[in-house]
Each structure stands twice: as C-alpha cells, then as structure tokens.
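Researcher: Let's do a round of design. I'm pasting the structure tokens now; please hold your answer until I've finished.
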C-alpha cells in the first residue's frame, strides 16, 4: 500500500492510498501476457507508439491548408473524433491493412527504435512497455496486430482507457501516462532505472519533470513508501513525417466527413472545398531541376536565403474561367516551350524568358511576357520579375526545350457548407486568415482548460517550399492565397499575349489584404506549426508552410506530385 496521486473522481491530485500489485498493474494492459515477478525486474523500458516506434501518417500539409490540418486533428470538430480517433485512418497506412499486415508495414517503422525494442525484450531483467495515448476502445486490436506483425513481444501494451483500473478519469494524455508510470515504478519497486522513448519535446519535458518530483517525494520525511529513488532517463526521439497516399487521404477524410454529417444534428454539415491559387503551365520536376541550373547566386549568398521555384509559367491568378481555359487548351493540355533568354534583377530575382514551340501556338499569360520565375532572394518579391526589361540571350546548350501541362495550383480545405455558394465561389478561401482560434461550427464543442492542451504534434521542418507560389506578384511564381475578400479576374487576351482576342476572364487573383502561403502561419498564433504530432484529446495547430499540387475535387488540376 502506498500513497499516490490520482486524478480520478474528486479533486485533482488528491492524495489517497492505492495498492500497487501485479494484478492491478496488468489491468492497464490490453495484452494478455503474464507479467514477470517483481524481484526479477531491474529496468523498465517504455516506448511511445506514434512517430517514435511507428511512423503513423499525419495530415498532409501539402494537401490541406493550415487551418484544415489543425481542424482534422481536433477531436471536438468531428462527432467521430477526427484524425487521431478514427481507426480507419491508421488502417489506411501504406496500401491498407490487408496488404501491409503480411509484409509487416515495411517502411513505416523507425528501425532504430525497433532494434532497441528487440534488445529490451532480450534482457531478462527488463520489463518492456508500449505506451500510447490512442484510445483502447478504437485501437487496441489494430495496434496489437501492427506490433505482432513485426514480432515485437512487449510485456505490456497500454492504450488510453475510458477509465483507469481505479476508476480514474484523465483530463489529458500526459496525466494518463503519468498514472501508469507511477503504478509501474511502485509495483516494480526493485527496478533501478526507467527509460522512456518519446518524440514530443513537450512530453519529454513532462516526463522529466514528473520523475524529478517523484524522486523528491520519495526522499521527503513524509514519504509513505519504502521505494528508493529511480534513475529516470527520457530519450528524445527524432520524429519522421510520413503521410498517406493523397488520393487515399482525401477519400478517408471525405468518409470521415460523411460519417460526421450523418450524425451531426446540431451544426452545419462539413464539406471539402478547393482553393485555387493560380492556373499555369506546370513544369515537371525533371525540367525544374534543369532550369534551376541557370541560377547562379552570389558565392557569398547562403543557399537558405534563396527560394528556388521554376515550377510554372503563369496563366492567371486563381481559377481560369471557361473562355480563358478553353483558349489555352483546357486542364491537362500539353504545351512545349523553349528558353530564349535569362535575366537577374539586382542579383535577387532570377528568371528565364520562354517562347512557345511552335511559335504560332496560342497561349496566355498575365505577365508582360512569358517567363519562368526561377528563384528569388527571401527579401525580394517574386512580382519584381515583371520589372525585368533586359533579357540576355542564352547559349545554344542552355536553350532548353521542355513540355508543360495546363493545371492549377490547389489546396483542399474543410469548411462548413455555405448556403447559396456557387462552385466557382467555393474555389476562393474567403475566410479571414488572421488565425481564428476556434474551429468552424460543428458538433457541440467541449471547452478545455489548459490541462488538456498537451498533445500538440506539429510537422517537422519549417518552410519546405521548393515550388509553387510564395509571394505576391506576376512573376510566374506569384500565386495569391485564398482568404481575401475581393476577387479580380485575370485579364483576357491582350496585345502581345499570344493568339490575339480580347476576352476578359473573371478567374483571377484576389485584391485587398494579400497573403501568400509564406505569410499564412508566420509570426505568432496557433497556426504557426513546425512539427506534426498525434492529438488524442486536444486542439492542435496546423502548418501552412507547404505548397504543392494535389488531386482536384470536382474540377481541374493535376494529380498530386505531377
């Protein structure tokens, strides 16, 4: 019998006497394996599941806008709990459970951690525990199958129950994990050390603080337990981001939305919408690499200060309306181009002038001449490329010929349905992008206090832009983000724009308070995300620092990654 802290019924952190036995400890595990005798165990090794041992898929930040990345992971936004509470998301990992289980989810493991688990299992005096905040009800069977496929024989597999063995209720995943750890070290009172492998810095700190306090309590004169202090080592694991196939992910989110809408009686239905940033002649990655060889920044200029693009020749900002789209051949039309000139503006903006092949081809661009924005310094505006007047001829070996495909730069977003909104209007994200701190209307929302806000997993790696449009401008890479209120159509076909004619499309960019993809999520606020982390019970910010094409939804656009 020892005095322990519990967050069960009654005041939080109320001290009460709890019995620590093997039988009681085993109730935490959804594994039927018998636990070794207390006097046999000298070390406790605890492994987190998501993004520590197993690279669980995260919402794709290239596929969804930043608000949606956070929204998908917010439990209160979906009747069925969202991304981290829907087992079908985890089942869809890789090629799906039916194909992945026979090959043990190859490629989805952190193999270094797998090796460490294997070493822990082989040590006769070590208890090996898998500890995750995923719910026992939804994920116990699936996670046991995933682990068994890799032949990892944990002594305990612990998932978050609705209530603990002593009817404890947990306001956060951290509190649940601390309750298990406390029971673990008190039950195996002869263990000298505990090692915890965890990918989240906030949880790493939480565990370290917990054991510092735990050992201090053991040394206090009021201690009611004979246990000696334990050596606690919390190992920070570098997370590795993986995502689902974009088509599968879109389908799974649509299914999740359908399930939500069928059960949600209190709020507006949700739907997936597309945001079209620009329409352009999209350049394949192989040709992008070739075009970037034209860029020669100053030797003293750090490469990290340069944004490399070379991914499109602008047609118009936003979605192109039918007359303009028909003129350029429609979505998917192939157009060949040849590099005819090169220019650098103040050694901060680099562009390649191009001409259609054959020269009589009908084309359109909102820029003053057709060009590819190759790169720009982080302090320069892509739109400055339109200031270039003096194009230098390129040598014959640099007159690259490449093929483009008419397509759209798109991201998806999840929003409540808007009554009376046309399909065309839905292509613009008209919401205020000043980081709303509450999710869109959905089911009745639970307002959590600060104790619950500890599951913030954010996608690692800062700004990953190697393509797309980052800032305002007409320089081939100046796509305008959604979220602005006034939409001006792109100009129609004017003199010198290839092919003649005077159509005035309405498919252009947005005017007013412009924000680019780089602007969204910069500075403070909830949506300034840098890492991706499972969120089992609380709101999670999303990241906005990605920028790529992906599957169209009821409209044009290139397949993801093409």
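Researcher: That's everything. Go ahead.
Model: Designed sequence:
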């Amino acid at each position: 019998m020892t005095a322990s802290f519990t967050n069960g019924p009654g005041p939080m952190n109320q001290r009460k006497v709890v019995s620590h036995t093997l039988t009681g400890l085993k109730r935490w595990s959804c594994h039927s394996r018998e636990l070794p005798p207390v006097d046999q165990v000298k070390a406790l090794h605890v492994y987190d599941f998501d993004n520590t041992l197993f690279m669980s898929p995260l919402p794709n930040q290239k596929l969804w806008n930043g608000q949606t990345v956070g929204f998908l992971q917010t439990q209160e936004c979906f009747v069925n709990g969202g991304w981290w509470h829907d087992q079908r998301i985890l089942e869809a990992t890789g090629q799906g459970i039916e194909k992945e289980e026979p090959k043990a989810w190859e490629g989805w493991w952190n193999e270094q951690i797998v090796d460490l688990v294997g070493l822990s299992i082989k040590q006769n005096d070590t208890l090996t525990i898998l500890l995750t905040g995923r719910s026992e009800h939804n994920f116990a069977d699936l996670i046991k199958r995933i682990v068994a496929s890799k032949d990892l024989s944990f002594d305990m597999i612990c998932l978050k129950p609705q209530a603990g063995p002593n009817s404890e209720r947990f306001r956060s995943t951290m509190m649940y994990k601390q309750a298990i750890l406390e029971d673990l070290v008190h039950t195996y009172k002869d263990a000298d050390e505990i090692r915890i492998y965890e990918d989240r810095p906030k949880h790493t700190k939480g565990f370290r603080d917990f054991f510092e306090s735990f050992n201090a309590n053991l040394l206090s004169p009021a201690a009611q337990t004979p246990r000696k202090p334990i050596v606690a080592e919390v190992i920070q694991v570098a997370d590795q981001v993986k995502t689902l196939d974009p088509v599968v992910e879109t389908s799974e989110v649509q299914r999740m939305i359908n399930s939500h809408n069928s059960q949600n009686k209190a709020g507006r239905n949700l739907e997936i919408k597309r945001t079209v940033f620009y329409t352009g002649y999209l350049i394949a990655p192989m040709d992008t690499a070739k075009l970037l060889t034209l860029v020669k920044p100053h030797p003293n200029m750090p490469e990290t200060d340069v944004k490399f693009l070379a991914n499109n020749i602008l047609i118009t900002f936003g979605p192109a309306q039918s007359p303009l789209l028909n003129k350029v051949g429609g979505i998917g039309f192939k157009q060949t181009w040849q590099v005819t000139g090169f220019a650098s503006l103040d050694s901060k903006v680099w562009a390649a002038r191009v001409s259609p092949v054959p020269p009589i081809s009908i084309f359109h661009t909102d820029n003053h001449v057709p060009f590819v924005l190759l790169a720009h310094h982080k302090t320069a505006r892509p739109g400055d490329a339109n200031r270039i007047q003096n194009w230098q001829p390129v040598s014959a070996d640099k007159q690259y010929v490449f093929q483009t495909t008419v397509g759209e730069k798109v991201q998806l977003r999840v929003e409540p349905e808007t009554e009376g909104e046309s399909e065309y209007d839905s292509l613009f994200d008209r919401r205020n992008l000043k980081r709303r701190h509450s999710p869109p209307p959905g089911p009745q929302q639970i307002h959590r206090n600060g104790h619950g806000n500890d599951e913030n997993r954010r996608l690692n790696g800062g700004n990953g832009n190697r393509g797309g449009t980052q800032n305002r401008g007409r320089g081939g890479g100046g796509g305008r983000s959604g979220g602005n209120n006034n939409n001006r159509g792109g100009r129609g076909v004017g003199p010198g724009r290839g092919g003649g004619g005077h159509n005035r499309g309405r498919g252009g960019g947005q005017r007013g308070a412009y924000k680019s993809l780089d602007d969204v999520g910069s500075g403070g606020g909830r949506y300034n995300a840098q890492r991706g982390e499972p969120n089992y019970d609380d709101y999670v910010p999303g990241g906005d620092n990605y920028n790529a094409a992906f599957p169209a939804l009821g409209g044009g656009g290139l397949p993801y990654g093409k």
